[in-house]
C-alpha cells in the first residue's frame, strides 16, 4: 500500500467562538483536497455537522469527503455560542499541547490552530503566554519564533509583535531584526522553495527617517546591519519608507516584507485580503498555520462566519508539508 503523508491537525480553539463553525464549513467546501482532522469536543460543533470520531490521526483518510474527522477531546462543559466558559479554558490549552505531541511524533504533518480567547485562558486557567505563538515556541523548546502573515499577494513579518507602540523603539534592536531576517529567509527556503528570498525591510520611522530628520534608527544601525547581511548573501532591500512599499507595483520587488511593529505589517495585509490571510509561525521545528481572524464571539452561532481564512490556512499547511517532504527527498 502506498504511504500516505500524515494529515493536518486542526485544533478547536475557543469553543464559544466561530472556530467549530468554520471547521464544519471548511470540510464541506474543501471536498477532501486536504486531509485534516479536528481535535475537540464533538458537543461543541454545530448541531448539523456531519462528523466521524477517529481513534488515531491516520484514520482521517478513511472518513468520506465532507465528513469532519474528529479526534475526541472531551471538555468539562458544553459550549454556548458567544459566551465563553472559564471551565473549558484548560481544555483549549490541552488541545494545543496534544496537537504538538502529534506532530512531534510524526502522526500529523503540521498544525492549524483555531483562534483562542487569550483573556479567558488567562482568567480561567492561568495561561501565562501572550498568545498562541509564544506557547507553541515553549512547547517546541525554541527561544525565538517569527510571525508571518501571508496571502496570495503579500507576505509580511512584524519583528516585534504584541507590545505597546511606546515600547517598539526599545525592543526593535539589531539583534531582533537580524534574527528575524535569518529565520524568515530560512523558512521561505525550506517551506516555500525560494532559494534566495528577496526581503524588504521597512524603516522604523516615517519616510525611513528621511536622513535623520524624522528619527535616527535607520542611520544609527539599520543601514549598517543590512549591509553586513548583504555581504553574507542575503538579498535585502531597505530600510524602505513604510508608506510606499505596499502598493501593487512595489510588492512585485520582494518575496516578504519585514516590518518594525505589529500594525505596520498587519494593516496592509488585512487591507489587501481580510478574509484570506494566514498566520504562519516561522522558526518552529514543525509547520503551524492559523486563520488570520479572532474568535468573533459577536457572530458565533449565527451561521455567517466566513471559512475562507481557515481554508487558506489548511491549504497552506498542506502545501508546506508537501514541499518540505519533497525537499527532504532530494
From TrEMBL:
Top-rank EC class of the record's enzyme: oxidoreductase
GO biological process, one term: pyridoxine biosynthetic process
Subcellular location: Cytoplasm
Enzyme nomenclature, EC number: 1.1.1.262
Cofactor binding summary note: Binds 1 divalent metal cation per subunit. Can use ions such as Zn(2+), Mg(2+) or Co(2+).
Pathway field: Cofactor biosynthesis; pyridoxine 5'-phosphate biosynthesis; pyridoxine 5'-phosphate from D-erythrose 4-phosphate: step 4/5
Keywords of the record: Cobalt, Cytoplasm, Magnesium, Metal-binding, NAD, NADP, Oxidoreductase, Pyridoxine biosynthesis, Zinc
Classification via Gene3D superfamilies: Isopropylmalate Dehydrogenase
A molecular function (GO) term: zinc ion binding
Annotated residues for binding of a divalent metal cation: 162, 207, 262
Listed SUPFAM superfamilies: Isocitrate/Isopropylmalate dehydrogenase-like
Record's GO cellular component terms: cytoplasm
Family: Belongs to the PdxA family.
Protein's name according to its UniProt entry: 4-hydroxythreonine-4-phosphate dehydrogenase
Organism per entry: Pacificibacter maritimus
Amino acid at each position: 500500500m502506498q504511504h500516505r503523508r500524515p494529515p493536518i491537525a486542526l485544533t478547536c480553539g475557543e469553543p464559544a467562538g466561530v472556530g467549530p463553525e468554520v471547521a464544519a464549513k471548511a470540510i464541506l467546501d474543501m471536498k477532501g483536497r486536504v486531509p485534516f482532522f479536528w481535535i475537540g469536543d464533538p458537543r461543541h460543533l454545530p448541531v448539523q455537522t456531519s462528523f466521524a470520531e477517529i481513534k488515531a490521526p491516520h484514520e482521517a483518510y478513511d472518513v468520506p469527503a465532507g465528513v469532519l474527522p474528529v479526534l475526541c477531546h472531551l471538555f468539562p462543559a458544553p459550549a454556548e455560542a458567544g459566551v465563553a466558559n472559564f471551565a473549558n479554558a484548560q481544555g483549549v490549552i490541552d488541545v494545543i499541547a496534544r496537537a504538538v505531541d502529534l506532530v512531534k511524533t510524526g502522526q500529523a504533518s503540521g498544525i492549524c490552530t483555531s483562534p483562542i480567547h487569550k483573556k479567558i485562558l488567562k482568567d480561567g486557567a492561568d495561561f501565562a503566554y501572550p498568545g498562541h505563538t509564544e506557547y507553541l515556541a515553549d512547547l517546541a523548546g525554541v527561544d525565538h519564533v517569527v510571525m508571518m502573515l501571508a496571502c496570495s499577494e503579500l507576505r509580511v513579518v512584524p519583528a516585534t509583535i504584541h507590545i505597546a507602540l511606546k515600547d517598539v523603539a526599545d525592543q526593535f534592536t539589531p539583534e531582533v531584526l537580524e534574527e528575524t531576517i535569518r529565520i524568515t529567509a530560512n523558512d521561505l527556503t525550506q517551506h516555500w522553495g525560494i532559494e534566495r528570498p528577496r526581503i524588504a525591510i521597512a524603516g522604523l520611522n516615517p519616510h525611513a527617517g528621511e536622513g535623520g530628520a524624522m528619527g535616527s534608527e535607520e542611520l544609527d544601525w539599520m543601514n549598517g546591519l543590512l549591509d553586513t547581511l548583504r555581504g553574507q548573501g542575503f538579498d535585502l532591500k531597505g530600510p524602505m519608507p513604510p508608506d510606499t512599499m505596499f502598493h501593487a507595483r512595489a510588492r512585485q520587488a520582494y518575496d516578504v516584507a519585514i516590518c518594525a511593529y505589529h500594525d505596520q505589517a498587519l494593516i496592509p495585509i488585512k487591507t489587501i485580503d481580510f478574509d484570506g490571510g494566514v498566520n504562519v509561525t516561522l522558526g518552529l521545528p514543525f509547520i503551524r498555520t492559523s486563520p488570520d481572524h479572532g474568535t468573533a464571539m459577536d457572530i458565533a452561532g449565527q451561521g455567517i462566519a466566513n471559512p475562507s481564512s481557515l481554508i487558506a490556512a489548511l491549504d497552506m499547511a498542506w502545501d508546506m508539508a508537501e514541499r518540505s517532504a519533497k525537499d527532504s527527498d532530494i
